[in-house]
Design brief:
The structure is a single chain. Helix content is about 60%, strand content about 15%. Helix 6 crosses helix 14 and helix 14 crosses helix 30. The strands form seven sheets. It has a five-stranded antiparallel β-sheet with strand order 5-7-8-6-9. Strands 10, 11, 18, 19 and 20 form a five-stranded antiparallel β-sheet that branches. The protein has a two-stranded antiparallel sheet with strand order 1-2. It is built from 30 helices and 20 strands. The longest helix has about 35 residues. The chain starts with a helix and ends in an 8-residue tail after the last helix. It is an alpha+beta fold.
Length: about 850
Amino acid sequence: TIQELFSALENGNSNTGGAYIEKEGIAYLIRGIGLAQNIEDINNILIKSNGTVPVYVKDVANVEFGYSVRYGGMTMGGNGEVVGAVVLMRKGENASKVVANIKKRVTEIEKMLPDDLKIKVFIDRENLVNRAIKTVVKNLFEAFLIVVFVVFIFLGDFRASLLVASVIPLSLFTMIILMNYFHVGGNLMSLGAIDFGLTVDPAIIVVESVVVSLAMGLKNVKPHLIQDAKDLIVRNATFEIKRSVVYGGLIILIVYFPIMTLSGIEGKMFTPMALAVSFAIIGAIILALTYVPMMSALVLKPHDPEHKNFADNMVNAMHRGYEPILHFSFRFKYTIICFSFAMLYVAWLVFSNMGGEFIPKLDEGDYNIEVRNPVGVSLTKTIELSNTISKILQRKFPNEIETLVAKIGTSEIPTDPVPFESMDLMITMKDKSLWKVAKTKDEFTELLSKELTKFPGLTISFSQPIESRFNDMISGAKTDVVIKVFGDDLDKLTKIGNQISGILRKLNGSADVQVQKLGGLPQIMVKYDRRLIAYYGIQISEINNLIQVGFAGSKTGKIYEGENRFDLSVRLDNENRNGIEDLMNLQINTNKGITIPLREVAEIKIEKGASEISRENGQRKLNVGFNVRGRDIESIVSEAQLAIDKQITLPNGFRLDYGGAFENLLRAKSRLSVVLPLSLVIIFFLLYATFGTFGDSLLVFSGIPLSAVGGIIALSMSGMAFSISAGIGFISLFGIAVLNGILLIGHFKTLAGRRGIDDIYERVEIGIKERFRQVLMTSATAALGFLPMALSHGAGAEIQKPLATVVIGGLITSTILTLVVLPILYIVFNDRKINLRF
């Protein structure tokens, strides 16, 4: 029997020189088998000896080289199977260095391979990284040019413009030094979200104040005293606005505090951005209070205040156009205030109906298509199907598809344990300039979907390589949204899952709906007759081991060949394990000295059983996943929740959970809903420390909700949903809006105190006139600095665009509100006749 064969090998019985030697235990087995020089030595291992007739392994078994049981495969281009590998990077490593080292090592390995064996990379992370870096560099360069141009247009002084522009690289150097010190990596967000307008705003405030002060203060100074006078004027001008620079910068730093508290994937993406921007602003503040005044005293030349340059004429013309609006607002103060509140209400209505998504999808350029066959399809059939699909797709789309690789089942190292019927099609695309059948990726996705749906019985889900990996790690499914059904009964789980999928398929925007297959797998069921088993004196564990050894195979030891180790396994040959009859005829040794077939003590039949049992937190679950196209995730999930709650009644002990990107969105919004109000409270106390009065602090603080109006309108007009990226944009916007308010209200207080202007209307008019250029410059540089990001279409632009759109739209309304509504609120709060002083 196979029991005796397995026992002989496991115990190490061998034949040496015709003598019977029994090894003791597996340790001796390894040594004994290790003494075998070839297959013949294993053939001559003694099983038993009946009198003078020995029975060797070769008498009852074939000893040959074999292979482990395969649970997966890989094909490429429809040309048959290939050997594939995925390189995983350790946490915290530098991706660029790792990829470079891998390529260097692959080159060395290729030199040792036979001529007909080639290594081909089909998914290279470096390609996406390089394309994203190209987008970042392009946006930063364009933003640099725009900011320098805007500064020159508003100042009209070439030296002053160069001085302000020089702060950009210096603040970036500070940022890079601090990023390196605190081990913050450079990526699409940490570098791509840098706004040069924010880095030059402190310098703009100082330089503009110095330029005006030099023009007024050096009229009658003797030539040999000019430098001393310049030093004094620059010092006094800097001291006058240092509070606005410092507190304005601190407030911008505070508004980035909520971003640093994000966790999960959103924390990984946006925390480096918040740190990088904070480092750049810290450098900008230090430079504005040290480097900029020093260089101003050295390089700036005073111009005659009576002689206006083109920048002065432009600003004066803009101010003349603004004055009628200001006087109009003086007459209709309460109407404008009511109109502002109405705009806030409208913006709130728009925002509440906007919908939301976690993070806009990054277009990786390539596809990862999950294809599921019906349950029970063999590995061989799945491999054949992959070759067929690959050939058809490459024949249909030769100008679009570069490489097509199919990953089937589970690899030898089971990083992704999936069944035989599961297949991932990894499609590497050519450059879009070569495409002929489609212009956009969405159009090409529709064409691929039409071709794949021609194969009956397949479940298809479109994704991207990195996106698929993220979704799988987050929720256990490779789709955008996954609905998890928890319960104990597998049949009820399947029934509920099918009901949910029927609802989802009717929703507008849902695509690639798929239900996890828990059942339907044909299985051989063995039910023991315990009474007969006891009669024959057989242990249940013995029968279980026998079935495992005979049909699945079992290890009996290890074979050494040089430095390599191989398992020595025993199982029935193919002819004796083809079907259920072979299992029924399996012979069992009994304590009565006879052998009986397994059919005598067990009922054996084929039934459909569970194909997969998934658990989460100790509970059984079923996943129902779907992708979202042409719609935001929050609205479609909300609609799905209402429909499911209305149409499906869950049994006792069953519950639903919504995961994937929707789960991330809820987590991030929940975190922001706590830390954002906290940061706003901190901002208010900083404003109070700046002005010393509750009323003035509240006035400046009012710019935060008013600035959000433009951001919401811009986001809505661009057709975007609210996302964490857009939320980061609002946070950035609040800091800039407060900075403008500090500039204006701080100067009003200076006019009232040092210059003794008691008439509040005169004070407002003079204050706005003297700070008009600064307000416009800080807003214009910050907004236009984000313009390349908002208009970009390169790799990674999808994530940056909502952030830039919010800031640009918000700064437009923020500037208008700062110059119109804020002065009115200041008058209302401080006019003695109205008696509303705090």
